[in-house]
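WARN retry 2 of 3 for item q-0093 after timeout on previous attempt; input resubmitted unchanged.
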Amino acid sequence: MTEIDAKTDALVPAWLTLPDIAELLDVEVTRVRQLVKEGQLIAVRRGENRALQVPAEFIGECRIVKGLVGTLTLLRDDGFTDEEMLEWLFTADLTLPGTPAQALRENRGTEVKRRAQALAV
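OK item q-0093 returned
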């Protein structure tokens, strides 16, 4: 869990607090904290009270967006920091089109994972 810089903060269109995510997923906040600890979600401290927040695009209909966990694992294995992963996921890629985060939400995870794997080469 890291502090976030203004550049990355500007790339992410919307954020959710851990209690918001717990409500959306219908789980306890402790479970959301566990998901962050396990690397299934990326949380950063932001806002005046430095509360932990997660990009809203990571949460779909009552679950974590399909393909996100695998993509985060690939990027982490490639040596990406949380901030670098957020930057990659929310930077537009004309060949996708859109951002990798949008592609995951649109169930185009295979292509996103292929690109994440190519980064390791």
